[in-house]
TrEMBL record:
It catalyses: 4-amino-2-methyl-5-(phosphooxymethyl)pyrimidine + ATP = 4-amino-2-methyl-5-(diphosphooxymethyl)pyrimidine + ADP; 4-amino-5-hydroxymethyl-2-methylpyrimidine + ATP = 4-amino-2-methyl-5-(phosphooxymethyl)pyrimidine + ADP + H(+). It comes from the Bacteria. It comes from Streptomyces hydrogenans. The gene is thiD. CDD domains: HMPP_kinase. Catalyzes the phosphorylation of hydroxymethylpyrimidine phosphate (HMP-P) to HMP-PP, and of HMP to HMP-P. Keywords: Kinase, Thiamine biosynthesis, Transferase. The keyword Cell inner membrane does not apply. Residues 15-259 form the Pyridoxamine kinase/Phosphomethylpyrimidine kinase domain. The keyword NAD does not apply. GO terms for molecular function: kinase activity. This is Hydroxymethylpyrimidine/phosphomethylpyrimidine kinase. Pathway: Cofactor biosynthesis; thiamine diphosphate biosynthesis; 4-amino-2-methyl-5-diphosphomethylpyrimidine from 5-amino-1-(5-phospho-D-ribosyl)imidazole: step 3/3.
Length: 266
């Protein structure tokens, strides 16, 4: 009998263009040797040029999907992405609080193209209900500002940003510094308030980076499901995403996706 791979559940919105959201999550999970499962929170009409429409699912549909998977199949890690509204954030937070598995929270606020994916009215629910469930929270710099008001303009500001996010209760926070003008390196900070891990990787001159945040959070969840400690899971995830960014390809007329299968074709 074939050995069952680790099980990872993504709770997120869809991307009809296939570069981000549920589609990116499942591709990354497959590439990293885990079995991906999904709870759809919203449907987006999306392509390389932006988000053209969003339709949230009812809370009962999200709850039913989650319970169907977790109660029968089980789960070794959960990743959350686009949750869209306060009622959906509250619903997912309630489900996560009752699940005995590590949780990676990607507090998605806007798309790569600048389109809003989280209602302003949902921010307090993210702060007070969702972040306390997180084993690892993975905000980018815009999401840090949206959640905490802290603006990161230089590398040294990332420590202040991490402290502000940790105040809401996640065990670890990974502040993603990819948008910082730090020259040849992309710098992230992982910390639990005691340990600090500064993660550096070459910055690739490639505009096709759609789905980077979804992919990184999914890769971290895959590592946790395989039993890795948080620092090791994050380190492996950053290496995977760095390769995916380097291999990102043009798609449509706008920003193309990272290449989730790059390592499979080496």
């Amino acid at each position: 009998m074939t050995t069952r791979p680790p099980l990872v559940l993504t709770v997120a919105g869809s991307d009809s263009g296939g570069g981000a959201g549920i589609q990116a999550d499942l591709k990354a999970m497959l590439a990293l040797g885990v079995h991906g499962m999904s709870v759809l929170t919203a449907v987006t009409a999306q392509n390389s040029r932006g988000v053209h429409g969003v339709w949230e699912l009812p809370e009962e549909a999200v709850r039913a999907q989650y319970r169907a998977v977790v109660d029968d199949i089980g789960v070794h890690a959960v990743k959350t992405g686009m949750l869209a509204t306060a009622p959906l954030v509250e619903t997912v937070a309630e489900l996560l609080a009752d699940t005995d598995a590590p949780v990676v929270v990607d507090p998605v606020g806007v798309s790569k193209h600048g389109d809003p994916l989280l209602a302003a009215s949902a921010l307090e629910s993210v702060r007070k209900r969702l972040l306390p469930t997180a084993t690892v929270a993975t905000p980018n710099l815009d999401e840090v500002t949206q959640l905490t008001g802290v603006r990161v303009e230089r590398e040294t500001d990332m420590r202040t940003a991490a402290e502000a996010v940790l105040a809401y209760g996640p065990r670890w926070v990974l502040v993603k510094g990819g948008h910082l003008p730090t020259g040849a390196e992309a710098v992230d900070l992982l910390t639990d308030g005691t340990e600090e891990h500064w993660l550096r990787a070459p910055r690739h001159d490639n505009r096709h980076t759609h789905g980077t945040g979804c992919t990184l959070a999914s890769a971290v969840a895959a590592g946790l499901a395989r039993g890795l400690a948080v620092p090791e899971a994050v380190r492996e995830a950053k290496a995977y995403v760095t390769g995916a960014i380097a291999a990102g390809f043009a798609l449509g007329e706008g920003i193309g996706p990272v290449d989730h299968g790059w390592a499979l074709r080496r």
